[in-house]
Automatic annotation (TrEMBL):
PANTHER family: SULFOTRANSFERASE SULT. Transmembrane segments: none annotated. Residues 56-288 form the Sulfotransferase domain. Its EC number is 2.8.2.-. The keyword Transcription regulation does not apply. Keywords: Transferase. Belongs to the sulfotransferase 1 family. This is Sulfotransferase.
Length: 314
């Protein structure tokens, strides 16, 4: 009876929200200014109201397709390097990074378990303003955000979401998807406010939020891994550097190693996501702009500015 009433209330709330088709999930609802997949809306709500962050918690936050899997693997390896000093039997060889670092939203669906060892490392795609108070203000937990060139996110997302899309969704044409993307309509979109929310907080509280770029990791992963370790309070010692601990973490988490690992070649996580699809090319600038229009919406010094660019030439 109680359950039925709760379901009816959920339906009532959903029916009042703007709704669009998603790229992989049939319905997205504009919930707290972001396009939340219908299958996670209740979970995000519970996460906001009930999650109690611990001081030592770590959150790997990102917009989908920005390099979440890579950053989860790196973060897990850094903070657990004393427990798993031998790379030969490291948990990343038997589990996908999303199983070791579960997305909090999916935890509330019962798809994954809460980490039992501290520091607990979680993933999240929830935009910064929608995070629970216990993460934002009340605890000293840390957030690492990874952002990526929006064109690369677009290409990666268009290919990925098409592979995992749920019935009865049809394939989005690339033009159609781009139009939706420019209007912010994509799972957890708009991407620009997602990035801005975390970026602003990283400026206001640099010891709380570390803002990283996928492209920087590609360019100098050694430097970025050290930066992450320092930020999290797990700096590498000179002895560890001499023993090439950083290099072994980088190798373990590299695109080639993860893509070729048996554990990531088959099987699903979160009940419907095929693990192999998390690894495609792992490159930057996998796109080219031809002649056409690009619409951008930016926030510059607090003002929202809409730009429409006409690109001439290839
Ligand atoms: P591409 O589709 O451009 O290849 P997310 O983990 O947020 O879903 O992002 C997925 C993107 O990160 C995909 O990009 C994927 O190939 C890339 N990726 C996954 N693991 C990686 C790794 N270890 N190193 C670099 N890129 C990785």
């Amino acid at each position: 009876m109680e359950g039925q009433r709760a379901n009816a209330e959920d339906e009532l709330i959903l029916s009042s929200l703007p709704r669009e088709r998603g790229w992989a999930i049939p319905d997205l609802f504009l919930f707290q200014e972001f396009w939340c997949p219908s299958i996670l809306i209740k979970e995000v709500n519970i996460f906001q109201k009930q999650f109690q962050a611990k001081e030592s918690d770590i959150f790997v936050a990102s917009f989908p397709k920005s390099g979440t899997t890579w950053l989860k693997a790196i973060t897990f390896s850094i903070v657990n390097r004393q427990r798993f000093s031998s790379i030969d039997n490291h948990p990343l060889l038997t589990s996908n990074p999303h199983q070791l670092v579960p997305a909090v939203e999916f935890m509330y669906r019962g798809d994954v378990h809460c980490p039992t060892t501290e520091p607990r490392v979680f993933g999240t795609h929830t935009p910064f303003p929608s995070l629970p108070n216990s993460i934002i203000g009340q605890s000293n937990c840390k957030i690492i955000y990874i952002c990526r060139n929006p064109f690369d996110i677009f290409v990666s997302a268009w290919i990925y979401f098409d592979k995992i899309k749920l019935e009865p969704l049809s394939t989005l044409k690339i033009e159609e998807a781009f139009e939706m993307y420019c209007n912010g309509i994509i799972e957890f979109g708009p991407w620009w406010s997602h990035i801005l929310g975390y970026w602003k907080e990283s400026m206001a509280k640099p010891s709380k939020v570390l803002f990283l770029k996928y492209e920087d990791l590609k360019e100098d992963v050694n430097f970025e891994v050290k930066k992450i370790a320092d930020f999290l309070g797990f700096p590498f010692t000179q002895e560890e550097e001499n023993k090439e601990v950083i290099a072994s973490i980088i190798k373990l988490c590299s695109f080639e190693k993860m893509k070729d690992s048996e554990v990531n070649k088959s099987g699903i996580i979160y009940q419907f996501l095929e693990k192999k699809y998390f690894f495609r090319k792992g490159e930057t600038r996998d796109w080219k702009i031809n002649v056409g229009k690009v619409k951008l919406e930016l926030e510059i010094r607090g003002e929202r500015v809409k730009l429409e660019l006409q690109i001439h030439g290839g």
